[in-house]
Design brief:
Layout lengths: L3 E6 L3 H11 L4 E7 L3 H11 L3 E3 L2 H7 L4 E4 L3 H13 L3 E4 L7 H14 L3 E3 L7 H11 L6 E9 L5 H4 L7 H4 L3 H17 L3 E9 L11 E8 L4 E7 L9 E6 L3 E5 L5 E5 L15 H15 L7 H20 L3 E2 L9
Parallel strand pairs: 1-2, 1-4, 2-3, 4-5, 5-6, 7-10
Antiparallel strand pairs: 7-11, 8-9, 8-14, 9-10, 11-12, 12-13
Helix pairs in contact: 4-5, 5-11, 6-9, 9-11
The structure holds nicotinamide-adenine-dinucleotide.
Length: 340
């Protein structure tokens, strides 16, 4: 069997998780990796037995002979690096957010269409068993009208989170803090469950603990969708001790509660609901998302987060930051719908 050749770009935290789940996938082989930090690239190659190691991305693109480029670098580099890969007609699974701004993401969508390449964005909760069960129950009407959804992300980060990867502390490099980096996964899941476009938002952003970084460590916001569903977000990097994230969905017929991270659970109250399984399984949502992307590339099966679909959550994040700055209710710019 010809294995799908995966090239890892950026050998940091999440790339190591992808390395671990790739090991369990017999259809995938990591054949190359690159990091500008030579020792990280070498350690990664040793850990996951990667034959070709690079410190230069262009060189990897030109010589590594890849089926998939997996991009896990600081956010502000995504735009140029996805673009460069697309120019060489390579398919890219990019870590979220695909870019820091919707304007950049729109440009990538146009290039992807022109170059006939497949760009996926790793919002892997689309392949999380518990999230999937709740979204499908909602879409089938089993929860009734979805009145409101509450997402709580009480996570904790040490100082080293910012000192070891300083890009995370810079506004230009990261585009923001806990909202864009952590909460955007749950916001994506909530919008998916609500199955209605985001309309207006309010937001409050604070630095309660990490005072000398440019991005927020705490964000609270609301999103109202066009069908009137209210989504409340509370995202933190400072909850001590941290707890698992939850998504509470309150419908006219039933309530659904998602609780998870490594061992996600979906519970339904008021009704017995048969839990639908995602079309692609795996030990973890990351494994399933990677395999689903592989199937898109190799077998042309549906992948649930192509770049176009990821624009909705990016546009909502942009509006939430705008609202936090203006102190007013802001509209979500609808321009992203031109690309759907
Ligand atoms: N899907 C998820 O659950 C999840 C979880 C964590 C992070 N992420 C995303 O993954 C991405 C990376 O985050 P991280 O936490 O792994 O960051 P990190 O800082 O741990 O790793 C980034 C790596 O990129 C390398 N790098 C920087 N510039 C480079 C370049 N030009 N060429 C090659 N390598 C370069 C750095 O040396 C570093 O090793 C971000 O987009 C982040 O939001 C996703």
């Amino acid at each position: 069997m010809n294995k799908t050749r995966l090239g890892i770009v950026g050998c940091g935290d999440i790339a190591n998780d992808i390395g671990r789940v790739s090991r369990l996938n017999r259809k995938i082989k990591i054949t190359a990796c690159v990091d500008t930090n030579k020792s990280k690239a070498e350690q990664f190659s040793k850990r996951f037995r990667v034959p070709r190691v690079y410190t230069d991305y262009q060189e990897l693109l030109n010589t590594a002979e890849l089926d998939i480029v997996y991009l896990a670098v600081p956010h502000h580099l995504h735009f140029a690096m996805v673009k460069e890969a697309m120019e060489k007609k390579l398919d890219v699974l990019c870590e979220k957010p695909v870019t820091v701004t919707t304007k950049e993401a729109f440009e990538l969508c146009k290039i992807a269409e022109r170059q006939l390449v497949k760009i996926g964005v790793n919002y892997q909760y689309r392949y999380d068993k518990a999230c999937y069960a709740i979204a499908k129950a909602a879409h089938k009407g089993e929860l009734g009208i979805i009145y409101y959804i509450r997402c709580n992300i009480p996570w904790f980060r040490e100082n080293t989170y910012f000192t070891e990867s300083s890009w995370r502390a810079g506004k230009r490099q990261s585009g923001g803090g806990t909202l864009i980096t952590q909460a955007s996964h749950f916001l994506d899941a909530a919008l998916w469950v609500a199955d209605s476009a985001p309309a207006i938002v309010t937001g409050t952003s604070r630095n309660r603990k990490f005072k000398d970084i440019e991005v927020e460590d705490l964000f609270m916001g609301t999103v109202e969708t066009e069908n009137g569903c209210l989504i409340q977000l509370c995202s933190s990097m400072i909850a001590s001790p941290e707890r698992v994230p939850t998504i509470e969905v309150y419908g006219s017929k039933a309530t659904a509660i998602y609780e998870g991270h490594f061992f996600p659970k979906a519970r339904f109250f008021n009704r017995k609901i048969k839990k639908e399984k995602p079309p692609v399984g795996g030990i973890h949502a990351l494994a399933a998302s990677l395999e689903a992307y592989r199937r898109w590339i190799k077998e042309d099966l549906v992948y649930d987060m192509p770049i176009q679909k990821s624009l909705e959550v990016l546009a909502t994040v942009e509006a939430l930051y705008k609202a936090a700055e203006s102190g007013k209710t802001e509209k979500v710019d609808r321009k992203y719908r031109d690309y759907l």
